[in-house]
Structures are given as structure tokens and as C-alpha cells.
Amino acid sequence: MIDDGKPLFLQIAERVEDEIVDGTLAEESQAPSTNELAAFHRINPATAAKGMNMLVEKGVLYKRRGIGMFVAPGARDLLLAERRAAFADGFVRPLLTEAHRIGLSPDDVRALIREHAAQTTP
């Protein structure tokens, strides 16, 4: 889990986001506490709290005073929309730019995707 190139608090936030996206943490379910995260990852509780508070500010988690943090309603949809936009920016736009550069039409690109998807579908 530890990636030396990325701050620990961001890694904590991303891991919780991954669990929301994949359904491990359902909406309205309680998120792990900062102390649990700190103990599991052997990090400072303040670092774990920083990652969790980022998710609160983003609207992915909310706090129930004296109880803990919970997954906000609509959090999964919010994260999926964010990730789809990042996917388009990081992969689709560069793909289409390069396709245009080498003379492939959108239909050619679709055909290539279908061909490769058929070969790699689990």
C-alpha cells in the first residue's frame, strides 16, 4: 500500500475512496476510524485524520459527533463521476489525439477497442 512517491494522507484517502467505489464501504456505513487506519498502516493518527478530513471536505464522508465518520449519500456516484472524468482526461483524450495524428478515424479506434476487448475480457 505504501507508495514512497505519494503522501501517506493521500494514500489513505484513495484507499477509502476505492472501498466506496468497489462497494466494500456502502453509503451510510461507518468508515474506519483514524485510529484503526493509523494502527493498521503503522502511521501517525494525525496523518490518517488528514486523509479522512480531505474526504469530509470533498463530501464523500460526514461526521457524526461522538460516533465516527460515515459514507455520505451519493458518495459512490460522486467518486465514479470524478474517476470517469479523470479517465477521459488521462486516457481517452490522449488516445484520440494520437489516433488523429496517425490517421485513425473514430470508427477505426472503436474497432481496435472492440478487437482488444474481445481478447482481454475476463
Automatic annotation (TrEMBL):
SUPFAM superfamilies: Winged helix' DNA-binding domain. It holds the Pfam family GntR. One of its GO terms (molecular function) is DNA-binding transcription factor activity. InterPro entries: Tscrpt_reg_HTH_GntR, WH-like_DNA-bd_sf, WH_DNA-bd_sf. Transmembrane segments: none annotated. Keywords: DNA-binding, Transcription, Transcription regulation. PANTHER family: GNTR-FAMILY TRANSCRIPTIONAL REGULATOR, HTH-TYPE TRANSCRIPTIONAL REPRESSOR YTRA. This is GntR family transcriptional regulator. It comes from Microbacterium sediminis. The lineage of its organism: Bacteria, Bacillati, Actinomycetota, Actinomycetes, Micrococcales.
